[in-house]
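Quick illustration for those who missed Monday's session on complexes.
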Amino acid sequence: MRIKTIVANLIGPENLGRLDYLFKPRLRRSWGGPFNGQNFRQRIYSNLIKKISFEAIVETGTYLGTTTELFATSGLPVYSVEARPRAYAYSSLRFCRRRDRIHLYQGDSREFLRRLVADEDFPKSKLFFYLDAHGLEHLPLREELEIILTHWREAVVMIDDFKVPGTDYGYDDYGPGKVLDMSYLEPIQYLQLYAFFPAVDTKQETGKKRGCIVLCRDEALKNALSEIDTLTPWNLDVSPRQSSSP
Ligand SMILES: C[S@@+](CC[C@H](N)C(=O)[O-])C[C@H]1O[C@@H](n2cnc3c(N)ncnc32)[C@H](O)[C@@H]1O
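Prediction with S-adenosylmethionine bound:
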């Protein structure tokens, strides 16, 4: 075992996360800033927040809290979950003085969402969900969507790293059946979702130029999202394979 690994094991992931926060200030803008440093995506988010009276914001995949920090400026309560102890410890220290408004959890995102469902005090109406818990061994995304969209009828869900048809935005591909594109949503089409994509291509985006999709089930929310000029609606009735090329 290398010396570095031995020392890291002795210190422990929680203490390493705290040390990261104290001694590596550049990490406070991880992923290039909120929403991967993407200005147009930040505009989409800002338009959503202005248009819809959300009661709270829920994020899966806190990492180091870069986007969580932006969410907190909305004045809404923010709930975020992170699986990895080191990143969770980092964010816990980062937001330790704002625990009244920023609620952090450590663990699996699906378990966290089920806990919110069971929590009688947790808001049951309009919520904004930012799903960004990808990258570990198991991809929780489809289960996250099913939990959210069956329990919060008025949810608006933004998924990061999702393929935007006909553009060169980046997206995640974890192997067969785990590509974040329209085919990934086929098994949950029974939920009768409305889908929206960024209204511009990557030339007008900054930062890491990752794709995203915005979903909802509620008809009134769909109408509200249709009025947001940074989003463009997508017809989910059309087979994604026919319509998403190239
Ligand atoms: C891309 S990073 C999130 C970046 C963050 N949202 C931001 O904008 O700065 C993805 C994070 O999700 C976490 N993650 C992956 N799978 C998870 C799961 N099942 N539950 C909770 N967190 C998970 C990873 O540990 C990682 O820190």
